[in-house]
Amino acid sequence: QVRLVESGGGLVQAGGSLRLSCAASGSIGSIAMNWYRQASGKQRELVAAFISGGSTNYADSVKGRFTISGDFAKNTVYLQMNSLKPEDTAVYYCNMRNVLGRDYWGQGTQVTVSS
Fold it and tell me: Which of 41, 57, 63, 75 suits a disulfide with 24, CB 3.0-4.6 Å?
């Protein structure tokens, strides 16, 4: 059974930083590792994507402030979040997609940014 375990969420003031971590308990053979977020009452959105081969993609709202990194061989992914804004407040979810197209999800970690 594969589990994704997230950590690093918490309460921070606007302008501060947090680093989210996610690690899979077993081998996945992922081709993409991603971070999503869902604010209260809103739809889940893709924040950052890390694709096998090294390419990355970011939502316009976080571009220049967030950085995704990871290690596909170790099934780990990170999200460095700088210059946080109140609108970044959400539950953040780790996602990994394997070669066969199966998605694995973490339970989510709360990030709250106060003004």
Answer: 75
**Beta carbons of 21 and 9 less than 8 angstroms apart:** no
How is residue 21 written in tokens?
């971590």
Model confidence pLDDT, tens digit, residues 56-104: 999 999 999 999 999 999 999 999 999 999 999 999 999 999 989 999 9
Q: How many residues does the chain have?
A: 115
The answer on pLDDT for 26 being more than 90 is: no
CA 16 to chain centre: 17
Q: How many CA atoms lie within 13 A of 7 on its CB side?
A: 4
From the CA atom positions of the chain, what is the Rg in Å? 13
Q: How high is the pLDDT of residue 92?
A: 98
> CA quadruple 62, 63, 66, 68: dihedral positive or negative?
positive
